[in-house]
Amino acid sequence: MTINFIIYIIITILLGLLIRIFYMIYLNHKIKPRIKYTTVKTFIILGSGGHTTEMLKIVEKLDNTKYTPRIYIHGETDKISVEKLHEKEKNNKDWKIIPIFRSREVGQSYLTSIVTTLIAFRDAFYILFAENPDLILCNGPGTGVPLCLGSFLMQLLFINKSKVIFIESFCRVKTFSLTGKILYHFVDHVIVQWPNLCTNNDKHCIMTNKTPLTSIEIPWNILLQVCNEQLPLEIKAHLIPMCNTLQTHLISNGKIESIDVDDLLLIAEACLDRTWEELNTGHWKNVPIEQRHCYTVCSILKCITLEIKIGKVERVNEELTVKEIITQIDKGLLLGAPLDEAPNILTEMASRLNEHIRNQENIAEVLDFDVDCVSKELLPGFKWLKRFDSPSMESFYRDIFMPKCPVVLTGCIKHWKALKTWKDPNYLIKIAGSRTVPIELGSRYTEEDWSQCLTTFSEFIRSHVIKTDGQIGYLAQHQLFDQIPELKADFSVPEYCNFSDNENETYPDINAWFGPKGTVSPLHYDPKNNLLCQVFGCKQIILYHPDDQLCLYPYDTKLLSNTAEVDPLNPKYDKFPEFKKATGYMCYLHPGEMLYIPPKWWHYVVSLTPSFSISFWWS
């Protein structure tokens, strides 16, 4: 009876402790009432190196008269932090340093670290009991784990009521550090610098809202130089003061009143509208590069101003504003031109913002491509192209490149990640769904009803690739991977592009060709070598030798001089009688295959299924 009673008591105590633990964790995730202190006795936990540097920057923002006395806790083998502290607090009298046994030294085995961790917990309990702090600040070093967990256990036993704040390192962008993962549920507040770490609406996880996404490392000196040297006087007069205002605001972390932000946005919009008029006057190729640089600068300044405004509107508008920023960035990339000394400003802005949007966007529907290839018969009057399986560099150069023979190459890009991931439209939408891209509307660019428009990548997939009952839309010959470099990680430039027809080595022009079944590229030629790589879907391709040019009836207009009037699948022999003399070659391009098209070889391309191809053009 006595033993049963003892067991009952033990179980009751353990159950009570368990309930108490879950209750405390529950409270940690709720909004807590403010407690007024005249002064706050503050524990500041230091690590070595970067953790100490970040923590000392945080301490700089603390009011010396309120957060006092300050007690710094450091690993007893960490001498560097001690040196930094003496320099930092040389004018402050109400502070001290307390060493603590380190849980684990760098390189120490996990087995022996069990003993050292127990010793560290012993030191932590002693320090907490002796000092009884009001506040404990920790930003990630392992030294903080025994102290923060020790404080939680002491609160569990009603011994003290210290508030513990864990501040995740600025370097942790996507995932918490190991210390953060351990302490997340056992501290009162978690402060993060990046939105990806605080997306679950947890009340005790707080984002600083101070992390700039568009204005990180903006080269203001270059922007001002471009404004001074390249922009028209009427634009320059507005943008130079705007640059100075934004730079001052960002450097000082000051606040611009909403009326000032609205004024700055009005200036940016007016300059963009004026530059837009210049860009759309005459032929695009004749637009001065200075005008395109002007559009780029206007886009940069508008995006920075919009981000400043985000903090002044309700959260429901934040996503809309971020998407507006991304849209303007894409317009800047499509219509502007890279600044000579800072070519990647807009691209880097978009990558950071796209990461923010990507992790917040919820794609509800599941989209599936129908990529079953149709019959692949040789059409009457045509010859098959030769096929090579993974030719060596020497073989490609000798048998294909030098004689300029069009061939199908198999087994050369089977390592591409894109072959697997891009078949899933949800993957493409996740990576690039919010980005604005140019779309061709109509079956082919030689038709009278052909036009172009701008739309988001996700809307293009939903409206033109998945749905096939409306007007055909084609993302054709677009440098998508310069605009969205995240997609570049899924493929690589084929090594065959290293061969050149001249001594000038140039990086290939990489274009995307993405659309539904039925898209057509009319019979035409390109002046460069071309490797057309099929990521998914199936295409039928017809080719003619450059010597057959007169039989193909090129348009006599300068704009379409590289395009044939004749349709090789439905030729009108009464109108184009010489076409009968041309020798046609054909192939079906399957996923994972490449087609080498030599310069000036005429080719006609039709998508038999939804299709994504990448072309590499080089001299």
From TrEMBL:
**Top-rank taxon:** Eukaryota
Q: Name one GO biological process term.
A: dolichol-linked oligosaccharide biosynthetic process
Compartment(s) = Endoplasmic reticulum membrane
Any one Gene Ontology molecular-function term assigned to this protein's record = N-acetylglucosaminyldiphosphodolichol N-acetylglucosaminyltransferase activity
Keyword Endoplasmic reticulum carried by entry: yes
Q: Which residues cross the membrane?
A: 6-26
Keywords, in A-Z order? Endoplasmic reticulum, Membrane, Transmembrane, Transmembrane helix
Q: Where is the JmjC domain?
A: 482-619
Q: Which GO terms describe its cellular component?
A: UDP-N-acetylglucosamine transferase complex
Return the Pfam families for the record: Alg14, Cupin_8
Stored SUPFAM superfamilies: Clavaminate synthase-like (SSF51197)
Q: How does it sit in the membrane?
A: Single-pass membrane protein
Q: Which InterPro entries match?
A: Cupin_8, JmjC_dom, Oligosacch_biosynth_Alg14
Q: Determine if Cell division is one of this entry's keywords.
A: no
Q: Which family does it belong to?
A: Belongs to the ALG14 family.
Name used for this protein in its record: UDP-N-acetylglucosamine transferase subunit ALG14
Source species: Microctonus aethiopoides
